[in-house]
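Protein 1 of 2
SEQ + STRUCT:
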Amino acid sequence: MSRSRTVVMVDAYAPTRRLAPVFHKAGYRVVRVQSTPEAPLVYRGAFDLSPYAGNIVHTGDLDATLSAVQDHDPVAVVAGGEVGVEFADLLGELLGLPNNGTALSVARRDKYVQIETLRAAGLRATRQLLVEDAAQLAGWHAGIGGRIVVKPIRSAAGDGVHFCSTPEESVAAYRKILGSENIFSNRNDAVVAQEYLAGGEYVVDTVSCEGRHQVTDIWKYEKLTANGITDLTCGVRLLPRHGAVQERLVPYALAVLDALGIGYGAAHLEIKLTPDGPCLVEAGARMAGLDLPGFCRPALGEGQLEWIVDAYVRPRRFGYRAGVDYEIRKHVVSAWAVSTVEARLRAYPMMGVIEGLESLYDVRPVVSPGGRLRRTVDDLSTPLIVNLMHPVEEIVDRDFGTFRYLDGPSFYELAEDS
């Protein structure tokens, strides 16, 4: 295969393992670039490099990395995940390939700058504060009143997000976050405080090509309150392309893409639908996590994976198909268990019931028997994921309700030494 049939993917790790095979199917080889000498802690461990024709590790010498990339004569540079967004922007710009450029790279990663960029564009944006010290934060919270959110300016998967009802709680959260290490193995040097947005939280996933946007899938987060987390996500549900909620979400989502300069590639937008209208929680200029793109193929026939390939290497096909609405073939809920204990797990005694659910697609243990349970406080600390899929929506709803009913103290058999 000639070198002109090569795509570079920056920071592809296990969560985006499905993308390289889709490029292979289209006739392209994929070279992986790692933007840091060491993989972030959350991604360390066994990682299959066999789908990649090369693996270039950036050690700080940009000229050397750029030269190594140029040797493969790539036709596209794609961000393989959140941590790779800025470096993919830089490589794409330096190589003169279709890309989003670097002018707004920071706005696509820094949660504070991101929201201020929307505000400057005239879009609905949450009230927020870039925290400088504890006294400033306490005064701001007192002025806002009620509940606020305190979180790192750069992270993902709910890492470090705190829901705070009093200024004292906000200050405690700020002190806990500042200087700690986030899931990407970076020090949290800054903290943002934001007003709490009341309303349902939704995901709008898109892929763009030459500034034209395609909505590939829309989801709604299922929430509950547990372990001190007010809005703990316990699942995600696939929604139809159209509906009263979607008609309010999508125009706002597309305006967010334009404001953040996302004209190429995937985006993952998390949006609250408040009484005042849609308001961005945060956006990622990369494909969705939680394996949502993986569910789209059996549920919709295609999703972000296939549209990403079209956007970068088959732009004419993208342009011909853009605007076509997806249709649900099978309804999907990805349900996440919520552990309330820190203990060693002996077994899941209700697994037989789970395996008998009519809509069961698969079960993905995060903590296997013999492992240690953690209190679930974010996306990364769920012990078990149960994925449900069926052509009849009511069957998925029933089985999700059954799972939520089962997921209590008796769902976990703990080891005696716990």
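Protein 2 of 2
SEQ + STRUCT:
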Amino acid sequence: MRFSVRAFFPENRHWSAASWEFAILSVLIPNALYLVMMIYFCPIRNFQIGLLAMSVLLGTILGRWSFYFVMVFAMSLDALLVASSYFQMPVAMFFDATKFVSMLQVQHSAMYVIVFGAVIMCFFATNIVVQRAKRRRSEMSLYPFAFCVMLMVFADALANTTPQKMQEVISVAVEPFSAVDDTATTYADLEVVVTSSEQPNLLVVIVEGLGAFSNSASQEMVWGPLLGKKVSARYDLNTGNVLYSGSTSTAEIRELCNLFADYRDLRDIEHLDCLPNRAKEVGYKTAAFHAFTGEFFERVHWYPKIGFENIFFLENRAGLNPHVPISHCGTTFRGMCDADVARSVEAFLLSDSSDAKFAYWLTLNSHKPVGHHEVPDRLNCWNGGVFDDQELCRMAEHWLNISHLVSDIAMNPLLRDTEILLVGDHQPPLFTRHGRRQFQDERVAWLHLRPRNPSENHFDLATINATFFIQ
């Protein structure tokens, strides 16, 4: 069969009903899910719109099964690229991270189940449009189709280009292991603290999904328990925000190593000059805590490389007594509850008074989609609370709960002098534009507590019985 491009663009058929039916439906249906998302928030999809258009066009000349293969590939790639942008992960990193999907419990999230079902429906509806177009090809011109594709690309660019997307594009060009000075650990002078003669404890907490609110009142609400008079009587307080790029593992390396990299860059490295390694070299005991599996993002492999002697994950119950029942929290990212991990962090800081401690805690439960009723209802989120956004409010309740947990650790009368730093990893990947507008572009918040009058805060901890395994 001879193929003629001119046959698809006859001037006398560009106003035909078949031409416009194909043009409109073949553009709208494959993109239907993302058009709905655009009402709230959707990453930019110019490339995917063009890819889907080419796939549909091929469907009018390919056999049915060949078209199925092409369309499944195009729609799968589209979904992966959208998810990559949505969760602010470089494309290569996201594709590498697909091997961790089996660790997630996607079926427990109604949102993900609905999205998957919608993609399947779009596939079958697109197939109906394409098969009908094949039968009416002699009645069609592709001028209307080309017009509708260009219109969709323009609308997508107009509605969905964001500062976060531009930052993602910039970050692709940054060389791994480039130095990063705009970090919370830098502003808190933790490198100086580690090498000081006093050697206070260090507690660094990276709070999952915490950005930097545009409204200072909202930020203060989340930090609330750490801003009270009792805490300020014992600690000096500093707050600020820093530039972020990438996802959580990039944030970890940003804060702990002052470098731009992610977990993939650490595979072939045996040792990295990071804050935990420097602390260990001057006598600190170091430990890292996370409520999810250590295999996710390969943390179990690279945490020791950056200096953590002890690592506590879901697999070892974060060091808690294996005979005492604990709860689990989260939906897709189902692991331990942050409140239980906080007990383990506190026990580590209180144990063995003769050594300074460096505790690093990566929180989990504010990861989307957040579970319901896992933390105290402090913000009345049933109607969106003060944020007028239920999803954001539920995440904020988790952030607020972390502040309460850290406040309890900070105010423990048996705690020796401890520098405490909390910092967000990346802006929360919210579904609504209204929610996203409540955060500063490309920034995450941090809060630093430095002990006041250190000489007054020393305790004889030899009699403290708190350990990991007797709680």
